[in-house]
Design goal:
The chain is 78% helix and 0% strand. It is built from nine helices and no strands. α6 packs antiparallel against α9 and α7 packs antiparallel against α8.
Amino acid sequence: MEVLLFLGRCGGRRLCYLTIYCAKKRIIGGIVKIIKKKICNWGGWLLLAIFVVRAGQEGLPKAKETGFMELVLLLPLLFIVHDSEEIITQRKWMERDSGRIVERFPAAGRMVSMLSGVSDRSFSLMVMEELAVISLAVWLDAIGVAWPLVGLFYGFGLHLVIHVGQGVAIRPYVPGLVTSVVEIPVVAYIAVGLWAEYTVVENLMLALGGVLFAGVNVFLIHWVGRRLEGE
């Protein structure tokens, strides 16, 4: 366990590259719009308001020391293993399959074009930025502030699930699919344990915060990457 915990402090990960879903049918597109506008917007703000009120009344979430927080420190190791697969396979996969993806999912054309234009240098900088964020969260956990790391852990878990969804939609492979399938059971086991560490509302808040932060961070690093490429 000591070795795993040591390795867990040494990693990095990139979040969410191809969020391609079958939006061919209007019913699917309608459901996506409803989820985005109603649940994500109103639900997100409502949960955030609850979190702020609770934080003011009771302080920020604190773990109950059941032991699962130590396993969350495996996030950097899971992160870097998963990201290594993406680094190795991303460029060749895009060169080989980007045309087929656009043909099957025309709405994804802009995203595929953007990702195809990311150089190895820009990709590496994106990974390093995310490694720095996770390293900061690990440091905060070391001084007793665990909730940022837990939020990022939930965001990473959702990222793995998205990869599997992409693999099912695109077939037969997307970068990061193999490590996603391998790591999801580990992440799920730890996530179940976290529900004993925090209350239901606290877990929802941490998950929402992690996902929102990951989404904003991915948008920003892609924006910076496009500027580095001179677009």
